[in-house]
Amino acid sequence: MENRSVTKQVVVYVTLAFMLLCALFPLYWMINTSFKSQGEIYNLTPNFWPKNFTWAGYDKLFEKGFLKNVKNSLVVSLVVSVFSIAVSMLAAYAISKLKFSGRGVISKGILYAYLMPRSVLFIPLYMLVSALGAGNSIWGLMLIYPTITIPYATWMLISYFKSIPVEIEEAAMIDGCSRSRTLRSIVLPLAAPGLAATFIFSFTLCWSEYLYALVVVTKGSDKTITLGLADMIVGDVFAWGPLMGGSIIASIPVVIMYLFTSKYMVSGMTVGGVK
Amino acid sequence: MKIRLDNKLAYLLMSPVLVYLLAIMLLPFGWALYLSFTDKTVGVPAHFIGFGNYVELLKDSMFWKAVKNTIIFTAVAVVLKSVFGMVMALVLNEKIIFRNLFRVLLFLPWTIPTIVSVFTWQWIYSDVGGVLNYLLLKINAIGRPIGWLAKPDLAMMSVIIVNVWRGIPFMGIAILAGLQSVSKEMYEAAMLDGAGAVKRFFYMTLPSVKEVTILAAVMTTIWTLNDFEIIWLLTRGGPDNGTQVLSTLSYTIGFLNMSLGKAIAIAIMTMPPLIMLINYVTKRSLASAD
Amino acid sequence: MKKTWWNKVAAVTLLSALLAGCGNNGGDNAGNNGASNAAGSSGAAAPAGQKGKLTFWMKKQLFEDQNNLIVERAKQFGKENNVDVNVEVIAYEDFYPKWTAAIESKSVPDVSFFGYQEVGQFYGQGVLEDVSDLVGELESKNGEIRPNVKKAVTFGGKQYGVPFWTESQVLYYRKDMLQAAGYTAPPATWDEFREMSKKLTDPGKGLYGAGVGYGKGNSDAEFLTRGIIWSYGGSVDTKDGKTVIADSPETVQAASFIRDLFLTDKSTPPSAIGWDDSGNNKAYLSGQAAMIFNTGSVLATIKKDNPDLYEKTGIAPYPAGPKGTFIPGISNNLGIFKDSKNKDLAKKFIAYILAPDWYKTWVEAGAPLTGPIYTALTKEAVWQEEKNKAFVDSVDGFNFLGYPGEYNPKAGEVFNMRVVNDTFQKLLLESSYTPEAAIKDLQAKVQEIYNK
């Protein structure tokens, strides 16, 4: 027994170390590059740490108003994710817990809506958004982005809701809990890790969207981070420093968001308090 | 619970989602479907040509090559992402030190916008100051720098690696969230019975997160199949069309060449297999609710 | 009772969502209608009190100065003409989806940047305005526009774009490396280029003579290959716009030359077949390649970031083939969409941008990447500098896609679909694939496009 758990510990930590290495090496390389001068970036043999440490890339970034882009992305992603999770939660609850006619068709239809690639849909969606007068602003993005997040969120939540044993709910309902009460005090707390995970991924889907943003937003003041980063590339010459630095800055809000939501991702079972 | 219909309540709950999707997606979808049956090019009115685009594509060897590449790219990437995602979830679900820190760190690849992570990988793969070649040369694993994007098979492998690298956190965190909902008591009960780790995984853990894993894999499949940026920015479908997938082919035909109708036809043809996949998966998950 | 609670919540959620949606749309709609009405009615002579609107999509330039100058100039135009000029600086890669969405939704910019291929392509789609009168007016007022760049946007004797600036591909070479190998001058012919490349290559040190790449999307390669094929007397297009003449002994000869460079001599870096447009820049900037072909972007970058390399760099025109020197031309233009609501104002704006005094400042701020369209301006001191001269001189050797026929949309399609790169990638990857077979396949693929 003792032996087995030591072996297990070793396996777990070795696996963890390997995964960390793979996940983080490219990020380390990005940070490394962001502090190098243009000349050093193009060195034939790569340096594992910048010889001449420079903040020039970051200076250029702020010169170009990158923080404004971050703010725009933050607003769009937050609004869209909150809205999507709220409505998807209701739909997912209905689909996973209720019997109704047309359940199969509707639930599948929500996923079908997801199959059309963006590279096709951007034209009609652009027309729609301009016709509604929301073109050329982050409002347009807020209108479009739920097409990316809702089908995803609905279905992931269906699966999380369904992993909650029916028995618990039944027990609650037999005890005299109403459906709404059951949902609030049993289902949602139990599904909290799933809700949190779905939220954070909805957020990142909006956060890194490029094509819709490119087509819809043209005003400098409404550009999102992906557009701001793309601005660092001109033809065959890339501003590597700002580009890499920008994406590091861009990942900070997501990490904060993740830390914030991960609170709920830690064991929903205890939070739920089945008793 | 008695089997009884909750039509009114159900539709009420679903109405925000349904109204939104119908309002926003129905028209564009109809528009796209119609255009796929026309000779539409940018700026010129469309003429109905029936199945012309589809027939032309089915006769085109390039299309079939793209189909083959798409299947390879998607299948390999999704399987790898699912496996590594499961491993990541299991490891992060253990009682390890700094668990929260490691969760954040392993989540990071997903947070970097695709365009930038692609350029970073391009540098890593590069034979000029590319760190991958440099390290491999140093440990004498290779004799001379390798052009990671210069040979069709290697290039396919390289774009898959980038896609997998970026996609693992999604699978990992989605499954982890599912694991967190698994009752600790169930675990402990199984432990008392003396079940081994492997057995516990297959009889306790896996069944409890099966639903989430399958759905996350379906989502990933849809995303991977339509993944455009990674391949476009790394290889444009080359070399020798070795990484030409349907999404890049569709983009080339539709936007560089302005044949919108044909480009949309390609996109539409990717739908039936995906619909079949969805039907298969949802049939199980919808049925098991009873 | 319990159940109604739910009904209420859901109903309120739904209602508020709908209301929010309607409210927004309504408000924005009104604002937008107001704006577009104003734009629609402004025309050339905006009546007092009503401000017109002009949208200009400009290609993002490498030099921040040039981008800023354009924006300032547009503002100035707006002040003088009492219009709101909205300049959007867009990266070249992003133009295609934006044009497509704009054309399809009929919300086009009034003035837009176009490469000459796009002028041809959009002319073929019938969405571009004939601007011959404007070109004529500019020439009579400001002097001759270089004939070669005018040629690229002329269809049926009429111009569908106004030339804005030229870009030339030239040969970059490392003076120090060539000297060390015993050469005093850059290669004058392709044969010399091959011989020197071989001598300059030293894989042990990671050095290669020829920094020539063949990535699928690589437009540098598409152009370079044509330049080589043309100089051997071959073609990848037609003489008359119908019959493809790619399959000729001359084209095969050129293909063999390229194949030898890669496979026989191995004078190119190992990853070159996968290079995108930035591949040769990287190779040159890192010192991996001794010679590359590129526009002025590389020179401009090293002048700023790497003065040492700048000093070691020599610039020369393309080497010559048996039939002489052929340079694939790159011309950049301004055009007006037929759907523009302010065509007269748009023309006035283009003329304002191309007024020689200001234009000279702008174009020289981008030297040597951006070359002037006016013949007179090529005589300016900046273009007589040793490293800059080749860039404006090369324009006289310009030929365009479609050669020896004139540029046409089909030739543009051949270029856009990267048919030539595809063929050469295959040729350079499969050692059993002969140049003869490759060119035969090329002929078939190009013919297929022309037949459609």
3D architecture notes:
Chain A has about 280 residues and is mostly helical. Chain A has helices at about 1-35, 40, 55-65, 65-95, 105-110, 120-130, 140-145, 145-160, 165-175, 180-190, 190-205, 210-215, 225-230, 240-265, 270, and strands spanning about 235, 235-240. Chain A has a two-stranded antiparallel ribbon. In chain A, strand 1 (about 235) and strand 2 (about 235-240) form a beta hairpin. In chain A, helix 4 crosses helix 8 and helix 9 packs antiparallel against helix 10. The radius of gyration of chain A is 23 Å and the shape is flat. The model of chain B has no long low-confidence stretch (mean pLDDT about 85). Chain B is mainly α. Chain B is built from 13 helices and no strands. In chain B, helix 3 (about 60-95) runs parallel beside helix 7 (about 150-180), helix 7 (about 150-180) packs across helix 9 (about 195-225) and helix 9 (about 195-225) runs antiparallel to helix 13 (about 270-285). With about 450 residues, chain C is an alpha/beta fold. In chain C, about 50% of the residues lie in helices and about 15% in strands. In chain C, strand 1 (about 50-60), helix 2 (about 65-80) and strand 2 form a beta-alpha-beta unit. Classes of the chains: A mainly alpha (about 280), B mainly alpha (about 290), C alpha/beta (about 450). Chains in contact: A-B, A-C, B-C. At the A-B interface, helix 1, helix 4, helix 5, helix 6 and helix 8 of A face helix 1, helix 3, helix 4, helix 5 and helix 7 of B.
